[in-house]
User: Fold Chloride channel 2c from Myripristis murdjan.
Amino acid sequence: IPAPCVAAISDKLISKGMSAVSSLCVCVSLQMYGRYTQDLGVYAKEEAARLREGSQRRSVSERSRTLDLLEYDKGRCAKCRTQKWMYGGLDSNVFLQYLAWVTYPVVLITFSAGFTQILAPQAVGSGIPEMKTILRGVVLKEYLTFKTFVAKVIGLTCALGSGMPLGKEGPFVHIASLCAALLSKFMSLFGGIYENESRNIEMLAAACAVGVGCCFAAPIGGVLFSIEVTSTFFAVRNYWRGFFAATFSAFIFRVLAVWNRDEETITALFKTRFRLDFPFDLQELPAFAVIGIASGFGGALFVYLNRLIVQFIRKQKAINKFLMKKRLLYPALVTLLVSTLTFPPGFGQFMAGRLTQKESLVTLLDNRTWAKQGIAEEFDYISHSQAWKHPQVNVFVTLVLFIVMKFWMSALATTIPVPCGAFMPVFVIGAAFGRLVGESMAAWFPDGIHTDGTIYPIVPGGYAVVGAAALSGAVTHTVSTAVIVFELTGQISHILPVMIAVILANAVAQSLQPSLYDSIIRIKKLPYLPELGWGHHEYYNIRVEDIMVRDVRYITLNCCYRDLHDVLLTGHLKTLALVESAESMILLGSIERAQLQSLLSQQLGRPRRLEYIRERAAAEKKRLSVVSNPGSEDGSQRANHEVRFQVREATARGAHISRARFSWFFFCWQFFCSVICPLQSSPSSSLLLFYFLQIAEWEEQQLDEQVNFNNCKIDPAPFQLVERTSLHKTHTIFSLLGLDHAYVTSIGRLIGVVSLKELRKAIEGSVTVKGVKVRPPLASFRDSGTSSSENEATELHKLWDRHKSMSLPREHVPSDSDEKSQ
Amino acid sequence: IPAPCVAAISDKLISKGMSAVSSLCVCVSLQMYGRYTQDLGVYAKEEAARLREGSQRRSVSERSRTLDLLEYDKGRCAKCRTQKWMYGGLDSNVFLQYLAWVTYPVVLITFSAGFTQILAPQAVGSGIPEMKTILRGVVLKEYLTFKTFVAKVIGLTCALGSGMPLGKEGPFVHIASLCAALLSKFMSLFGGIYENESRNIEMLAAACAVGVGCCFAAPIGGVLFSIEVTSTFFAVRNYWRGFFAATFSAFIFRVLAVWNRDEETITALFKTRFRLDFPFDLQELPAFAVIGIASGFGGALFVYLNRLIVQFIRKQKAINKFLMKKRLLYPALVTLLVSTLTFPPGFGQFMAGRLTQKESLVTLLDNRTWAKQGIAEEFDYISHSQAWKHPQVNVFVTLVLFIVMKFWMSALATTIPVPCGAFMPVFVIGAAFGRLVGESMAAWFPDGIHTDGTIYPIVPGGYAVVGAAALSGAVTHTVSTAVIVFELTGQISHILPVMIAVILANAVAQSLQPSLYDSIIRIKKLPYLPELGWGHHEYYNIRVEDIMVRDVRYITLNCCYRDLHDVLLTGHLKTLALVESAESMILLGSIERAQLQSLLSQQLGRPRRLEYIRERAAAEKKRLSVVSNPGSEDGSQRANHEVRFQVREATARGAHISRARFSWFFFCWQFFCSVICPLQSSPSSSLLLFYFLQIAEWEEQQLDEQVNFNNCKIDPAPFQLVERTSLHKTHTIFSLLGLDHAYVTSIGRLIGVVSLKELRKAIEGSVTVKGVKVRPPLASFRDSGTSSSENEATELHKLWDRHKSMSLPREHVPSDSDEKSQ
Assistant:
């Protein structure tokens, strides 16, 4: 096929590719949630019929509502049913009930952890931190393999099925990215555009949007969330692609529900039915603001708690040793603890333990008031809501217990090494907190706050929506959770309360803790650049010269291999600077370490050595035969004498042979002993030593040769910064271009280097590394406007003086004109 | 005040500043729409009471609805009332009615155009194109002045009041940015952080979000729209700021409505009441897709039409001359034409001419079906809807006429030189088109499409929402119009149809025409980089070496002033490259043209010339007095002879004196004639000529001196590209960093330069500029992987050879080791 044709076809395919990714994701999602739809269909119909019999009045709207609920029932795939069946069938014996309740999650989580561990340990956790790192330009190839894909999908399915407080948003983002990466790899077989690196990054950015989009059937919120969570700078031209992919994923996700006859038409996933004409009173806004601020603290606490648990387990060496030995013990223990506490006849009865995550969310977003049951509402009670009402215990106590218990359980559960996210658990906790505040408000103002005649009772469900958005926003440091809740509930009437709460929650959480994903990045020590916090003015006052490493490893254009060798032994950076000469320090480019290593090994490598040895051996043999011919005793004596002299000389010369080449010496020794010596009749040890020293001398000669860079790939335009660039701008440039390091130059002269490490340290404020110093706080007093040109002028002056002093033959001789003018 | 205190205070103020900007915007918005609220309040109450009497049943919901509608009535500030009053009071005479209908808009638009023209012509138009350019990093200072602010606010108020099909979104973005810029300027008086350039850009980005946010009370859509419209790469850390600002602006905008007792609580601006349980059928999706595709074509046509009108008026020299003479004639004529055609008793009766833009939108988003009036709906007819129902003409004809007429009217009206946008008119046309499709669908399927027993009639209002989002999205090339309509209507139930339609509309429109704002940028010839279209693979295959200008103007480190002078005469770029020497071409940095000009003027400037002349004059006087003393005749003869000889010599030497300095010669001549000659007793013309030639010689000497760059501000790290960078990557880097030009280097050697102009030409495909050639389409066949290193190696080889041939005294002499090894 001619190349243009392929290009044209692949152009068509890029759009199809996106929707393929989306549908693949949807398939994954359906695989998990719709797997048992078929056999559940019968049950669903029966249940619907039963409910319809019970009340004739609520025909149309109620039916769709029931179907909604049934879908949620079905949503919790096999486990819930099996677990409930086991639990329900064992009515008589509490112990057997407990066993049934506990065994299922433990087995599933253990299997998931084991499977993931064996197949691809990269699949553990959310995947969003890794995607963030990859989209920044850092290559983490093992995170985008087919193995990881399989491990993630199967591991996630099992983990979600266990009923533990785990989410699926992060893993979905990772799965979608895996699809995109595999698709890109597949497409690149056809060549053309798909081989392009930046194209793949664009694909990945769109895939992230798909992941969240098909989780919630939230095309807009999904795109925004994935942007906020994975990008620092977002290309607006990718925006359109993200929306395209996410819309198709959401569309297919919901259309399949219609085709399965679960729904009559496309609707929201967690549809709410709050009243439209008066959604909330203006005077309720302070309560919403309180939810926002409290969620901010709660979100920061959650991130802190999560990190604390991970660090605690890591630090406790005894525990760690034990857990490391039996890798599956930790997941099993955690699952056992959590499922024991939620056991419905036990402690679970006080915290609605028998509800799954989705059921909890549905009941929490309910538009009725729980605390004050006297008011007649148009909708009847849903059976699940009963779980919140304990005969002895107040609903407020149930809610508080639910929030507190779920809070630490979620923080603990997300540390289990299975593919899992934390978004959904946090979302549910937020909804419960919002519901708590809402119920309190409803109890406080039974007739609503509005004073203008008509009674508008307070809607606690609206508070739940606000709380869910605020807490999940605080944990992830995103604002787009607001959009997600609108798309999830299908109602946008609470837009202002939600926005205010989310913004306040973000303000509080961002000033206290990093986001959950950044926290995981730090725990996992991924090469990522932290965000600049807001309100830190010092970033504008710290200059790059304050944080740069001045002791740059460089090679000169006319350096010899010895310099190369020394530089390679000491430095650590992946690339080395190439300068014109050590005096001028004019930066010409950068060379990768691997290139230099191959240069060096070409010069001193085994083939050339062997060649040299053979040459020498042949020459020596010839000489010896010539020498030994005239007179064997005398000749050998003379040769011996000669050798001794040469040895003394060579030893003096080769005294500083580096240790690194000693192994090579021994190899040569053995080579001589085995190959050359048997050929010769009289092998003397001094002669052998002579050979070795000759080889050492040859090596020294080779090292003294000038490096030939001709076959070396040089990056002629590495990124350069000026020494007075502010930390803020440096951060911007590093994140914009996904840089790993940048050279600091002054009028073409290399004066330092800044890498991600220095930048990270400078931003995090813990600047303890050698050679790095941070400006004192008083640096803000410094007048930045005037001094910079002076500094530059001085640097230039030096360069200029050097040029003058070198007095090269130039096209123009200044002294001539000087003479003329006199 | 100590600086840290100021910094701390200003930290507080930055957040306040944002809300100040927002509230200022809100104030502006209220100034326009709420100015006549107070006196209208009474009328509103009466109207509400009257309506309530009319029907007892619809108590709660209807009341808020009525109030909603009244607010829209009030929304059209004084003009509407006055115009309608005039129009209503003159019932008897159609001609007087016509006069009243026409005079008002003409006067207002003429005033607006005149006022803007006189005070600040920069205030004309939308302002979004200018903001896009400014946010890209190009400084357009005159667009952010206080004068522009005043002109924009007053001009916009009048333009909107005229009732012409003009929008306010673009101007609001500009006004908000003006507020932010003025605020920044004010804050920078306190020093500290506010002096920072990038900080101001961040402020502007947030201000753009405020502008749209307070227009529609749409915090989320506003932020997204402003991002899409103004940015190429968006910093996610500004996202949060935008949401913060936009939420406050929307909040204050809507809260003031509550405080004015126009509304009971915070609600959406154009609240819709579509049914929730079954918003649309799955089988209606093709119709929505058709709306999307048609809107895409419509949007492209609108942009094309708008550009065509502008270009037609510019090209027609006769018209142009006439209009230029009388600048206010064009606005007046256009207004006259438009208002004549909408005159209600005339042609306006067939296109709902008596409705204002807001009234049209409210009626179009109505949830009843117009075509089929038999079905009983729960809501009664609103009076405005009657405007669509002509006794003789079908509602379809009215809608078609409305769409067609408003289409060209809007395209024409937005070319009037007043502050105005095009978003709202397009939005209304889109809504009308959607309504048309919806009504057709409703007429086609009177009982709805759903076949499962229950009748769900089609909701044409939902189609109107989809159409509005799709057409406005197509014209502006944005997806976020989808979010805006959700926030505007307060209902999110149509999310999938809206998303699908918007995406399809974007796909069609983007492939046909640039966005309206990009079109205006091209018309106004603002320095902006066009977007890369999608599906153009050639961008990956064109290299920067294909488009760069190879003939770079540079100066060398040891150049003389003559080189400087020559370079300054020929080049055009704002900055010049500084290289080490003409042979090595190693790039050391770049210098601004202004800096070089000041260097040159320092060297050859008036002070130094005058000083030299005075010195010479003094020396000559002394010499002459010495010469004339011994013998006057002989001495004068000898002096004359000497002069003649010197003149000949000097003439030979100074033959190539550039024309540019002739004026200076004449100045010197006059100076001599007037100042020096009267002092001397015997002024001879040959002596004078001698002086001039001596000055010329001095000049030549001065020009031959080596340039001292010590006091010159040099940018030591100008942006460098490699010659094999793809056009795609170059575009990305230019847009990311807001570059104006970049040098192309190869191993430190300057080989070319790429400026915005070359890049723009290369992207737009019209590569005709000298020295620029574009790869043939077959370039995609080229193997890009292997050849690059060869190329680099060759370049390096040259450099290396040069170094060897120069044989400078280095620390290492290669020949030594060569000798040793032999």
